[in-house]
Amino acid sequence: MYDEYNLTMLTDFYEITMANGYFQSEVRDCEACFDVFFRNVPDNGGFAIMAGVEQLIEYMSALKFTDEDIEYLRSKDQFSEDFLQYLKDFEFKCDVWAVPEGTPIFPHEPIITVKGPLIQAQFVETMTLLTINHQSLIATKANRIVRAAQGRPIMEFGTRRAHGASSAIFGARASYIGGCAGTACTIADRDYSVAALGTMAHSWIQTFDTEYDAFKAYATIYPDNAVLLIDTYNVLKSGLPNAIKVFKELKPAKMGVRIDSGDIAYLTKKTRKILDEAGLQDCSIVISNSLDEYLIRDVILEGAQIDSFGVGERLITSKSEPVFGGVYKLSAIERNGELVPKMKISENVEKITNPGFKNVFRLYGKDNGKALGDVITLQGEQIPEVDGYEIFDPNAVWKRKRLHDFYAKELRVKIFDKGKCVYKSPSLQEIKQYCKDQVDTLWEETLRFENPQTYYVDLSKKLWDIKHELINKYSDDAE
User: Domains of the chain (ranges plus CATH)?
Assistant: First the structure.
């Protein structure tokens, strides 16, 4: 979708003013590395889900300044003509690495690295963050909701509550990656083959003279998917009896009832009992109405009889925590033909960045395939697969774990080589399955909704040493 629009100018203005400044200074031809990472998992969860890489590729592949863009910038009277000519002839030349979509990701590890001409690497900051932050947020929330449902399908029903058209479309895509069975968003089915699902609105019922007439008309037109909304007037006294009457008369191939209000646990238990007594054991029960992972988990614990859920605004907006918080930070800059590590220092430990041109590995147990921890290394380093390899929490160094019988896998793939795309995105169905498989490699303690166990994201010895050398250097310089 991004390739249908010219989004080159979708930047924060400071990216353009800095680019112009770089262009007119001695760093004009320097190379630089920038990392994308996030500091905290939404909803205090144990992990997040990577999403949005395909749209990032579309954006970076279509970078081009139009004549209208150049004229607009000229009108600001802030940019040199040489710089404007540079933008007119702009050609993306960066190398880019990314964690594949559907991968569980953890705080502080570089999920994307952009390496290339400083002006260009800086310029793509906003759209890189916008794309990855949004879809990773929704995929993460969807995965939590899907896991809460314990195998019952989740339908994403939030299109009308999304924060704009692209949020609805890409939110549907991301929710599918996270494990949803389908979406109410029709265009997401057309463009991404995310199954479009839905039943009827209360207005359908109100349009007909009687509820029975409304149900009969719908089941006649859609005998292969006769799911009837039974709470327009009264679930147990009106909706359910009329639905049963229609089902027995027409005998549709697939039948179901949807409840969109009221006491979910009570109504579904009563509905299931009445349906079974009527000989309609194959009739499914669908629930919607402002659901999230906690409500779904609780009603299941209460014994609610539910076959599938429709989840709207609390999914598509990640209402409980609507900001992912990914950041884009300089990690290295070229000096005399060599990349020099750079880092940000802060009194807030979480805001201290990891310096250098880096890579990240995930370590898996050979006996069970479970993820044991991640290690961030300097580019070119390898993880020695030796017995007794020790990892630790860089923010709590006394928390250590010695690993045995494991193997290391490089977590990221290269998606651009000097501005040319070298990566073919998997199908969305493949990404969804990959996500499920990768979440299954996490321990139950990491999957908990409350107080999940902290997953280790370690630093290699070389990276740890460089980081602390720089901390000491900057601290001495500040005195």
Answer: 2-138+322-478 (3.20.140.10), 139-316 (3.20.20.70)
